[in-house]
């Protein structure tokens, strides 16, 4: 198969590494890719959200399967464009991708399908939103209704913080169009986990689960980010619990989407809160998570490309998804200044030294080559340093040893990824 993988982040580097292992693969193209994916296939200078450009590339390279990595091309309609061009695509239609593109749409689907989720209200103007939080009190969760690259959610511990989030999004426009309307939810309490499944129509096949660490600072302090690290599988959320969560929170959604005439095909990522009364849905995403994908895919033993092809064909009944019993961890190295304005241009050395260590994988995200051919930082989240081990402690030790050998003075990272999970193990 000739495959076009869309995206340029650490998730796409991990996906490219898994796809490259497939005996079904004839050629792999990545658009736009990064220096890490360049070692696994052919990078092509087409933006991930340039749907016409991606279709032209796919036609030119006689692509058999398009695999969208991030949400932007899906919300922009790449699956619809692929269908029109007669090219298979392992992702949902633009209408179905509204599960991620609109928080309001997701909440309406949950209500119609009887899926447990937090009580919510939508607001299109700042004044009534501010009045609501003053009346309701805190903690509350303020969410930009549209796509905000993982930065559109504020868990406000007090009314002043909620007011600031509303003002930032709706009055000051810090998130652009994404924050013109907001959803305000009750704050769910418990452990947050990420659940992943391949879906086609009303069929869902479990991929697995991971636990992300969203805030920038140790001890879950500071602002939310796109994710600073992940462990897989989460402590206390094994396969039986994952399958039960699919029955409760994913399969009813698939039935409701089919009833609406917008069946979902692709990867669903359900963010869950494990509350005292059971799992509740926080949000749906319509692709693999980042950095959860990196932690998940290094445990994958079956053929990712075969599974993605089955998704695109709507033939999931006999899909083979197998993971090792090992634990895994990803530790994100971000650029100083993230999640604000990151410091870019610093040279990154000794990734190869880290990858030579036992069971260590380093996936690149915000990197590029400078004029001298040096690898330099070019974004906020720059590297995901990952490792597997027979125990989470072993995986964690290996990952942090690898982090320490990477020579990048501008790099920052959390020192406590996986500690909470280890403490929960007792």
Please explain how this structure is put together.
GO terms for molecular function: ATP binding; metal ion binding; phosphoribosylamine-glycine ligase activity. This is Phosphoribosylamine--glycine ligase. The protein is built from 14 helices and 22 strands. By secondary structure, it is of the alpha+beta class. The chain has 4 domains: 2-89, 3-Layer(aba) Sandwich (Rossmann fold), CATH 3.40.50.20; 125-180, 2-Layer Sandwich (Dna Ligase, domain 1); 191-313, D-amino Acid Aminotransferase, Chain A, domain 1; 328-425, Alpha-Beta Complex (Glycinamide Ribonucleotide Synthetase, Chain A, domain 4), CATH 3.90.600.10. The strands form 5 sheets. Strands 10, 11, 14, 15, 16, 17, 18, 21 and 22 form a 9-stranded antiparallel sheet that branches. Helix 7 (126-136) runs antiparallel to helix 8 (159-171). It starts with a strand and ends with a helix. The model has no long low-confidence stretch (mean pLDDT 95).
User: How much β-strand is present in the residues?
Assistant: 25-35%
Give the fraction of residues assigned to helices. Answer: 25-40%
Q: What CATH architecture of the largest domain would you give?
A: 2-Layer Sandwich
List the uncertain runs: none
Gyration radius from CA atoms, angstroms: 20 Å
The backbone outline, from C-alpha atoms, is: globular
CATH class of the largest domain: Alpha Beta
Structural class comes to: alpha+beta
In terms of quaternary structure, the protein is: single chain
Number of strands: 22
CATH-wise, what's the superfamily of the largest domain?
A: ATP-grasp fold, B domain
The number of helical segments is: 14
Largest sheet: 9 strands, antiparallel
CATH topology of the largest domain: D-amino Acid Aminotransferase, Chain A, domain 1
- Beginning-to-end CA distance, first to last residue: 46 Å
Q: Give the count of structural domains.
A: 4
Catalytic activity: 5-phospho-beta-D-ribosylamine + glycine + ATP = N(1)-(5-phospho-beta-D-ribosyl)glycinamide + ADP + phosphate + H(+)
InterPro entries: ATP-grasp, ATP_grasp_subdomain_1, PreATP-grasp_dom_sf, PRibGlycinamid_synth_ATP-grasp, PRibGlycinamide_synth, PRibGlycinamide_synth_C-dom, PRibGlycinamide_synth_C_sf, PRibGlycinamide_synth_CS
Pathway: Purine metabolism; IMP biosynthesis via de novo pathway; N(1)-(5-phospho-D-ribosyl)glycinamide from 5-phospho-alpha-D-ribose 1-diphosphate: step 2/2
Protein name: Phosphoribosylamine--glycine ligase
